[in-house]
Amino acid sequence: MGLAAVVGGMIAIAAILAGVYKRRLAYLERKLELTAGQAAEKAAQYATHNAEIENRLRSLETIVTDGAWDTARQIETLRDGEPRTN
Hints:
- The protein is mainly α.
- The chain has one domain (about 1-80).
- The protein contains two helices and no strands.
- The longest helix is centred in the middle third of the chain and has 65 residues, at about 1-65.
- It is rod-shaped and about 100 Å long.
């Protein structure tokens, strides 16, 4: 009879510990999902910023490779989004 009580107690403790472990895994999974979402959002922001820098670099390359003399006017024209005139 005493042995059955000890085995029953051990089973109950094991069930409680399994529940705690399951909740911890769920917590860690949710934390990982949030971190992944934040990383994806940061990556999108970096991609947008990178595209802006690439556009500015293309404008500068256009100015340099065209050999234009009026560089300041061309920079302002490209910055304002007006079509370029030669």
